[in-house]
Design brief:
Layout: H1 19-24, H2 28-55, H3 60-88, H4 90-109, H5 117-129, H6 134-145
InterPro entries: MFS_trans_sf
Protein name: MFS transporter
Organism: Streptomyces lunaelactis
Length: about 150
Amino acid sequence: MPPLTLNARPATADPSLTPGAVLASPHVTRLLTGTLLGRLPNAMAPVALALAGTQSGGSLSFAGALSALYVLASALSQPVKGRLMDRLGQIRVSGPAVLINATSLLVLSAVAVADQAALATALVVVAGLCTSPLEASLMIQRVQASGGS
């Protein structure tokens, strides 16, 4: 069996492919703005959960567990939502996911997290499972823009 060798030629980038050229491409600015704004709540939710857990008198370990559950549930559900988006379309998956996520987090804000730990945990898991599938949305937009199916 011959030894594996690496290609000695370095990959060269297209010199006309500048950041300005990429941003000038159709729909890129809209997609980039949408995904950045959509990621803000996803990034802040674990921090807010940790603050809510400790502010209501709960322990730091419980607050950290709530944050970890949210992130874990979100990560585990993303591939499933991506496949559902392939089959059903973006709006039919993203719309209900966003509404359920927002409703769960709003209800959680009215709950005394430390006193009602089981309810708070269930709400966090539901909210995590229903985070917006932004990565899958971007990939579907990219495939559609390139003319693929």
